[in-house]
Amino acid sequence: MNPTKCADGTYTLKTTASSSTECVTCPAGYACDCTLDSTSTWCTGAASITPCTAGKYCAAGTKTATVDCQAGYICPTGAFAQVPCPPGYTCDGTGNTDSSKVQCPAGKYCTGGTTTSTYIDCPAGMYCPAGSRYYIPCAIGTYNSNTGASTVAECLACPAGSTCTARGQVQDDAASFDCAAGYYCPDDTTVTMCPKGYYCPAKSSQPTTCAAGKYTDNLASASCTDCPAGFYCGDDNIEAFADATTSSIIADKPIACVAGQYCPKKSYILTSSGLPGTSCPIGTFNPNIGGRNAGDCIDCPEGYLCTTAGLSDNYAALTQCPAGYYCPGASISKSAIVCPTGAYCPAGSVYFIECSVGTFQDLTGK
Is the CB of residue 119 less than 8 Å from the CB of residue 104? Predict the structure, then answer.
């Protein structure tokens, strides 16, 4: 019988595959086009399993990369989902990559996922240079009553007989304001922008670290964002590092989940193990970073052993089933099975091989 290739959008890494049920869905972020594979009968060649093209994104089961990144987003090579346009930039049109983003114009600010139709005018009392991801308040002693300011020169000195005791003051009304959300005020005259990895509600005297499983990658944040699936943010001891000078532990960006683990939404490092998220269970492994759920853990292949949780090795580095045993795979067994009498099992055996007619073998484990 002639071999049959896996269906479009699927592939297999098993050289012993005998049924289409052994073809698995192409992973998110990749395209699996079996028609490109001229070296194998089961769509395993490198030419047929390729990262998603830059400017497009590929859901699981994709044959060819055809879905363009939408306006307000960018899609790097290998994207499994659209990434919001970075703060401080606009992303117009479709099919955007990191190199096609455009700096936010002066007098506007762009908080992320922005196009030229959605950027925001700089509010009164603030100024926004080109590339602003958030507005900057006019300094104490100055004010600005107009929107759309782009330079600090548009913050005017308070007129004689008036005082401006707060940053971001709109007019010379001698008002004293509470410290604004997104900033902290350690004393009566100092207003400081909240740093990345922290959040500052209104009236903050110090920045507050984001809780484990949350992050902020913007300055002047008033709240934290849940860590997305496939990433981890901080650890379960992060609240012990409330000082803004302790930046090494602060969750200022999501970090891709490590191989051997998977990270659901709001994952973080467990200090007890030093690992983020959840370990792939015994009988499985995950050689890839960015795992989002248990479905990203791969069954141990036939002829190999996966006897510990959190394995991250690729196929070449996994433990081969020892001679005298057979290993039918994770779906059947998580440990090697001794070879029975009347049969023999070379290293890497998936099943035992019965002795040929006219011969016998009365020992196990051969």
Answer: yes
Q: Are residues 105 and 62 in the same domain?
A: no
Rounded distance, CA 347 to CA 329, Å? 14
Query: Based on the domain organization, do 160 and 230 belong to the same domain?
Result: no
Would you give the end-to-end CA distance of the chain in angstroms?
Answer: 32
pTM of the model: 0.44
Instruction: Quote the DSSP letter at residue 243.
Output: S
Question: pLDDT by residue for the chain (366 residues), tens digit each?
Answer: 556 677 777 776 666 666 777 777 888 888 887 665 555 444 554 446 788 888 888 888 778 888 889 998 999 888 888 889 889 999 998 888 888 889 999 999 998 888 888 899 999 999 999 999 999 999 887 888 899 999 999 998 876 545 567 788 887 444 445 567 888 877 655 678 888 888 988 878 788 888 888 888 888 889 998 988 888 888 766 543 334 333 345 677 888 888 889 999 988 888 777 888 888 888 788 888 888 998 888 887 777 777 778 888 766 556 778 888 887 765 444 567 888 888 888 887 887 888 887 777 787 766
Which range of residues forms the domain containing residue 124? 81-177
**Contact assessment for residue 285 and residue 300, using Cβ atoms and an 8 Å cutoff:** yes
Beta carbons of 105 and 148 less than 8 angstroms apart: no
- Total domain count for the chain? 3
- Asked whether residue 36 falls in the same domain as residue 104, the answer is no
